[in-house]
Amino acid sequence: MLLAFKLKIALACVVGIAGPTAIAPIVARLQVPATDIAEPALVEIAPATIDYRESGDYVRDGRQAEAPISVIRFDRPLTIMTHQVSAADYQACVEARACRAMERDASTAIDRPAVQVSWLDAIAYAEWLSLRTGQRYRLPTDAEWAHAAGSRFKDDGIPVDDADPARRWIARYERESALPDDPTPRSFGSFGRNEHGVADLAGNVWEWTSTCFTRKVQDQTGRIVKTVSNCGVRLAEGAHRAYVTDFIRDARAGGCASGRPPANLGFRLIREPPTWSRSIAQRLSGLIRAIRI
Is 265:244 a contact under the CB 8 Å cutoff? Predict the structure, then answer.
């Protein structure tokens, strides 16, 4: 009775501050309390402006066109995992029955990235980690990945031959085929860190992003007149851009939309800055644990 009374007082205090509408999602989150799972190592990247070549296909007058370069400003710090999600951490999600089991031949080592994971697998892990830590984790957009990658971001621009657009596809394939063929996942740090301190970018593990494949149709002046999105295909970033069907775990076995398929599919996550309601939820969760003690 005393515990219930104290809990009602705590909830009443929060409701008085936040109101009934704001408190509803907080109470829902508290139904499955966060555990003491350690958060992954993170890097905070300062706000900056980057030159970013747009993703997807561009078509002008019925022919393949070069994607434009945009200037993107990130006005707030970007917090991203130092390493890709490890095989051992992903296995913990599997054991909690929140993630699909890894393939039988996949390693569960703590010092190696989880590979042979689909975009859907990565989303499930992000939701599970968010629930267990009380923070919000998600996949980066392609532009965010490019910002975090810094000098490791590969510009995939290729000049277009208006007389023979097929030459562009050939040039892309030849460029990607010249990359080293190294499918064996290596231990963390094998590919070094970039200028932001983010490790193993553009190595032999491609990383899922939240960006959907798009095809944009331009008029003769270059103005976009139509955009078609296919979110069943997502962009994976690594030594080159790859467009992969979202349920595919091994792009080498099929599911890569174009170009040379990624050697391995893995992921790393971004941690969102805490919101006001999430901060209240965390404090209330701590208060409840203190009352139980």
Answer: yes
Q: What is the pTM of this model?
A: 0.78
Helix (H, G, I), strand (E, B) or coil at 253: helix
pLDDT tens figures, 209-235? 999 999 999 888 888 899 999 999 999
Helices 2-18 and 20-30: angle between axes, nearest 10 degrees: 140
Q: Which sequence spans correspond to the domains of the chain?
A: 2-33+280-292, 43-276
Burial class (CB in 10 A: 0-12, 13-18, 19+), 19: exposed
Q: From start to end of 137-274, where are the E strands?
A: 137-138, 206-218, 224-237, 242-245, 265-266, 270-271
Architecture of the 43-276 domain: Alpha-Beta Complex (3.90)
Report helix, strand and coil shares of the chain as percent, to nearest 5. Answer: 30, 25, 45
**Which residue shows structure tokens 């980690």?**
129
Residues 6 or more apart whose CB falls under 8 angstroms from that of 165 comprise: 63, 64
